[in-house]
Amino acid sequence: MSETVYIIGESRTQSENAITRIYNSFYIAFEIDVESNQIVDVGCTHTISLTESFIKKLLINQDFDDEESITRAIRKRYHGTSQKALLVAFTNARKKYLEIKKNFYK
């Protein structure tokens, strides 16, 4: 494995679900291999452990650079109340990742 980076995406949502009541935002953290763009590990705010476990299975080993495929997988398979927050947080994290790659991994 080459070098990895740690990125957090955040979504502030108006949704009234348990995650936003407890944490005020939805956060998702990614460890990404910068050479292959492969998602090595994932963690997120959650109230039920199955939420994080499911998101891990859904995203680990995916190509973080393939926004369309990841977005489609989330929309197709993740139907928790935080689906929109997950999509926004992923987009936020991806934006940060692209900036880091541009600045440090040319």
Structure description:
Strands 1-2-3 form a 3-stranded antiparallel sheet. The chain has one domain (4-104): Enolase-like, domain 1 (2-Layer Sandwich). Helix 3 (67-77) runs antiparallel to helix 4 (83-104). A hairpin with a 5-residue loop joins strand 2 (26-33) and strand 3. It is built from 4 helices and 3 strands; from the N terminus they run βαββααα. It has helices spanning 18-23, 49-59, 67-77, 83-104, and strands at 4-11, 26-33, 39-44. The chain is globular and about 40 Å long.
Brief write-up:
This protein is an alpha+beta fold and about 110 residues long. The protein has helices at about 20-25, 50-60, 65-75, 85-105; strands at about 5-10, 25-35, 40-45. The protein is built from four helices and three strands.
Characteristic terms for this protein:
single chain; 106 residues; alpha+beta; Enolase-like, domain 1; 3-stranded antiparallel β-sheet; 4 helices; 3 strands
